[in-house]
Amino acid sequence: MSSTGRPTSRDVAQAAGVSQSTVSLVMGGKWTGRISPATAQTVQEAAVRLGYRPNLAARNLRLGTTRTVMLIIPSLAAPFFGAVHAGAARVAAEHGFGVVVYPWPDDAGPADSPFAAPHEAIDGILTSSLAADVVSRFSGTPVVMLDSDPEGGATTVLFDVAEGMRAVAAHLAALGHRRIGHVAASIDQWTFRIRGDALAAAVRAMPGGSLIRASGTLDVGSARDAAGELLDRHNRPTALVCDDDLMAAGAYKAARARGLDVPRDVSVTGFDDLQLAIALEPELTTVRLPAEALGAQGMTALLGLLDGGRPRPRSLPGELIVRTSTAPPPPPR
Amino acid sequence: MSSTGRPTSRDVAQAAGVSQSTVSLVMGGKWTGRISPATAQTVQEAAVRLGYRPNLAARNLRLGTTRTVMLIIPSLAAPFFGAVHAGAARVAAEHGFGVVVYPWPDDAGPADSPFAAPHEAIDGILTSSLAADVVSRFSGTPVVMLDSDPEGGATTVLFDVAEGMRAVAAHLAALGHRRIGHVAASIDQWTFRIRGDALAAAVRAMPGGSLIRASGTLDVGSARDAAGELLDRHNRPTALVCDDDLMAAGAYKAARARGLDVPRDVSVTGFDDLQLAIALEPELTTVRLPAEALGAQGMTALLGLLDGGRPRPRSLPGELIVRTSTAPPPPPR
DNA sequence: CTGAAAGCGCTTACAG
DNA sequence: CTGAAAGCGCTTACAG
């Protein structure tokens, strides 16, 4: 064994009485028809005995690949992106790939952050919610974009958020709601633009439908203020459609602060179906976005890209989960 | 430039009219006193012009290090561990290290999972909430354990959860509570054992104090059932101390389902201070655990270990955050 | 101050 | 069926 402690293929070769290249062939699983089964078994036993594991740096150097993919997301502290990571890492592991996460800080834009991490050796990039023009900076590195503008030219895996928002609107319309308030995320991302556009179109199609909107950031306090602004209007909406579940929690607070009961006085809907949705009282009617599947499908597409393929864009359906935060509107005052 | 497209130090050397070793010295920042400033500048310009970035696999092979650390945690879908990751990744990046996350699935134990990822080339391991005996499997790889049993022999960075739990008990005692219910996590981990022991000792020290306990898993539904069991006792507790914030959300539900108001009829406390704590109504009195700092301090300790140091164990204080889910107990019936 | 050379541990033609 | 050898792109003594 080499003096540094960790055994190399050369050590295994010596222990098994064969050449180093034979060890490499056996360990790489490319020996059938080239090495006698008896020799192969001797090598495998020696490898196990010595606790041999191939040096990845050497393999990577030789093959020109790292079998590592970078996942760029807004924040891992958001449970949604934790699920995206889980799906991506699962599929990656099935193919012998690792995932390095690059969360960019809230204050730093995506513009330069990932490139401040020059120590990363990666084969490809999986990224969520990035502005499309940022893709151009990834010159040469294969990219798959998640839940992002498909017009950017990159391969995308999307949620069908427009269909999800139409399902919300149809549900509210069926309950009898006409005056809809949109508690919107004030974030310039494709997914939120689409949600807003789809809701506006759906309300426009309702007979007698009207839509008002207030924006906030993706946190409880900001959403509470935005929702409160809508509830303080003269002719207040009977339903608040929120851009995600956390904002819906803020809408609950705005309603309660005004003595309004959810759902008797005002209905509230969310988006994502996080664990929060059932932690709230009443439990939240929301659109379930399959975050784990997004990560998994995205990684599948990226591995296809790395294989030289041309994976086609995919879109994952959201599902309306009706719980107890929505009900018919109160009778006119 | 080499035919594969990506420039190497050899390409830069040719463009700058110097040798490859000079390029390496300049790029590695080890040139002062060895290379003339003029030459160094020529090299740097050529490197920028060609878009040269050192091949990490080659550097890793040469140096016998990967500058990568594996973070092993229960799940990234839990926002708590997202924050741990953020802290660890921040400190790692400051030292030119990358972090690979290894979340183990809920159903698989930690026993073999990380070793089913043999494609990872790592220098060290940062891990949370692992059973102490698992450390022995990491033979040879430096390990720092987070929020885990310090008796295991590994370097640890802990939360002072015992002190946090004592603060909860003191807060409740000061409000007048004596009959305490513990909604406990049924997970065999150091951090939860300590929470239970500290609470038991604190209640024992209260004049007239009594403690009953029910256990559940770390989710809303299971915690709701456990809390409900306590609330259905003949002489029901006036306060429910929950092992984390999500379980507290379950306790809220159990109370509401029985027509009990929080905090008028029963006080509830949590642990962690996740975003959920202020999304709930009423906002949750809880112990804030600095998850980002845990990851950061853990990574600092691990880098110290990799530097050949012997970092001493650290303990991070929790902070009781009093909100509106706790109040004096109702008058005796 | 600069360059030629060794060598990290692999994979993979190539020769036998 | 097996082995000797080249070479991936670096870092770092060593020679000049």
TrEMBL record, chains A, B:
Residue ranges of domain HTH lacI-type in the record: 7-63
List, alphabetically, the Gene3D superfamilies matched. 3.40.50.2300, lambda repressor-like DNA-binding domains
**Coiled coil, from the record:** none
Database matches in PROSITE patterns: HTH_LACI_2
- Alphabetically ordered keywords of this record: DNA-binding, Transcription, Transcription regulation
User: SMART domains in the record, alphabetically?
Assistant: HTH_LACI
Return one GO MF term: DNA-binding transcription factor activity
Region: Disordered, residue numbers: 314-333
* Glycoprotein keyword on record: no
| InterPro entries found in the cross-reference section | HTH_LacI, LacI/GalR-like_sensor, Lambda_DNA-bd_dom_sf, Peripla_BP_I
CDD domains named among the record's database cross-references: HTH_LacI, PBP1_LacI_sugar_binding-like
**According to the lineage, what is the superkingdom?**
Bacteria
- PANTHER family this protein is in? LACI-RELATED TRANSCRIPTIONAL REPRESSOR (PTHR30146), TRANSCRIPTIONAL REGULATORY PROTEIN (PTHR30146:SF138)
Identify this protein by name. Answer: LacI family DNA-binding transcriptional regulator
